[in-house]
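Make up an example, fold above all:
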Amino acid sequence: MVSVRLVGLLVALTLSAQVLKPSAAAPPTAERPPNIIFMPPNIIFILCDDLGWGDLGVLYQNTSLHDRKHKTPQIDRLALEGVQLRAHYCPAPVCAPSRASLLTGVHQGHAAVRDNQFDKMLENNHTLATVMRSAGYRTAIIGKYGLQGAGENPGQWEGYPTHRGFDEFFGYVEHRSGHQHYPGNSWPLGNSPAHKSPQKLWHNDREISSQLANCYTTDLFTARSKHWIGEQVADHPEQPFFLYLAYDTPHAALQVPTCAYPAGSGLAGGVQWLGKPGEMINTAKGEIDSYRHPDYVGHGWSDVEERFATMVRRIDDSVGDLLQTLKDMQIDEQTLVVFSSDNGPHHESYLQGAEYAPTSFQSYGPFEGTKRDTWEGGVRMPTLVRWPQHIPAGGVDEQPSQFQDWMPTFAELAGGVAPARTDGVSLLPSLLQAGKRAESTIYVEYQNGGRTERYQDFSPAKRGAFRKQMQVFHLDGFKGVRTNIQAHRDPFQIYDLSSDPKELKNLAGSSRQFDELNRRMQDRVLQLRVANDSAPRPYDKELIPAVNIEGLQPGLAWSAFEGDFSYVPQVASLNAAERGTASGCSATSAGSQVLHFHGYLKAPVDGDYQLAVRTSTRGFVRLHAAGILDADFDYPSGTVRSRSLHLQAGLHPIQITCLADNSGKGEVELLWTTPDENDLHALPNQVLSHAQ
C-alpha cells in the first residue's frame, strides 16, 4: 500500500502537470455562460449523521445566547472560504430515505426507500456513483451505508455499494452497525446487546472488524479517506475522484475517542492510516470511550453533554485535517468539498441510565423540530460548499435547495448532464455566482408514529403533536406542511419562512391568496409523485388533477439534442439543435442523439388508467412533474414498462425523452388502457396535443 506520507514526495512530480494543464471547458448550457471554464474537479461529499443546523458555530453556536455552546472552528473556516447554503433541505427527516434520495437524485415522491425502511436495497438505477463513474471519475464511499438489502455478505446484498457504481467501499453496511463507533470493541456502557457488541465493518468484500481494535469511527473514516485520496493522487493523477464520506456521528451512541486529536494535520499530522491489524490508525491506542475535549470539561455540564460536544468537535478536527491534506497534496483548488447532514438532531444516548436531548445546545438552531419532524429543525440541513478560486469566499445562498440537486450539480461539474430521472437542478450558477439557476423542487413525505418532542423551546402547538403521515412542499416562496394527514382534503399549514423561521404564524385561511395557494399545493403534490406500495399514503388514490389549457394543436412538439450520452439525459439545461412537431412520439434529426417530446395527454374520463412505454433504445416519461415510466437504466430493449395512474378527465402535461438510433431517429411507443378497457394498446395520437 502507498502511505499517505509518501504521497507528498510524489505530488510535485505527478501534479505539477495537472495544475499547469490548460483547463478544459465543460459544455455551455442555458444556465451557465460559456466563459465559465474549469477542469472537472475532484468532489468530496461529507455527510454527518444527525448533526443539527444549530450545531455549527458559523450558523448558530457562535452567536447563541444559550447557556451551553460548543465550537466548530475548522468547519467555520470552511464556511468562510466558501458558501453557506442556508436553505438546504434533506428529503426526509431520518437517515435511510434521506441518503437514498441523495444517492439516486430523486425526492421522496419517487424514491424506492421511504419512511423508516432501514437496510432496504437501494434500487438498481442511476446513482451519484454511476453518473460520476460514467464521466470518468474514480468513486468511493467511506463510512455508513445502510441501503444494501437482504443478505449477510456482499455476494448476497444486491444493493451493496460496489454494485451501485462505487469502485471502493470501506465502512458499515448495516444501519444498526452505525450506532456503535468502535467496530472492533465491546462497549459495556451500551443500553442494549446491539449497542454493547462489536460491529461488522467491511472493506469491499472483506469483513475486517477484528483488525480494528480501539478504532473510533470518526478517526477511522477520516484516516482512510486521507489514505484513499493519497492513492488516487499517486496512482491516477490525471483522473478526478468522487468521495462520499459518510460519518456515523454525532448519531448515538454518545461515544468519545480514545485520545486527543493528533497534533498537526494533513500529510504530516492529524489522524494517519497505518494499515496494521490491531494498529490500523494512529489513534487506536489507550482506553476506548475515554477522551473529553478540554473546552467542555469543568463547566458543570452533564456527562452526555460533554460527550456530544466532544463528538462534534472530533468531526470538526477531521474536516480541518482533510482540508489541509488537500492543500499538502496541491489539489486544494482542484477539489470541491460539500459538508452537510442527513437529518435534524437526535435525542438518544444509547448509554445505560442516561438520556440526551438536543436542547442542551439547541442543536435545532433558530427553528423548531428535530429528527423525524418535518418542521424546519428536522429537515433544514447545515450545508457548506468550498472550492477555492472558483466559489467566491464568504457567500451566503438563501435560495431553497434539496439533496436531489447534487446529482445534476456534480454531473455538470464533470462536464455532462444528469439522467432524465433526477428531480434536481444544478446548483452551479448559485455556487459560482454566475448566471441564474432553476428553481429547486422542495418536497418531503414521511411517516412516523411518534410525536414532536415536548421541549419548552418549541411553541405549545407543536409540543407533543402527532407526526404520523407528514408532507412538505414549497411553492411561491412559502412552505406548506401537513402533519397527521388523514385525507388529501386536509389543508396545508402555510408559513413565510423568511419572516417566520420558527413556523409560528400559520397563514392558511387568512386570505383568498392563501386559500388559492393551499389549493395549488394540494394539486401539485399529486402531480409530482408516484405511489409506492411499501409506503402507503392517504392521498395515493386521489385523482391527479388535470390542467386547463386552450389553443392547442394536434400532436407533440419535439426538440433534438446533439452530444454523447450513455443514458437518457435531463434536457432542461441543454440547447436544442433542431425543433419540430410530430403526430406521436417519433421524429428524426440527423446528427442528434436525444429527442425530447412534450405536450399534453387528454384523459377522456375520470378513473384508473394504465400507461406503458416500449422502445428500441432508451426512454423516460413524465406526466406533470411525476416520473411515471423509466425505460433507461439497465433497460432491455423492446420490453414494456407500465404504471397505473388515477387521472382526472382533461389535459395532463407529458414529456418523453429518448435516445436516438444511429440515423438520428428517436421513437417511443406509448400504450394505455382507459377505465373502460382491460388490454394495453397503442395510445391514439388524437389524445396528444401541444401548445403553439
In short: The chain has eleven helices and 31 strands. The chain has three domains: 4-12+51-374+386-443, 444-527, 552-691. Confidence is low (pLDDT under 50) at residues 1-35.
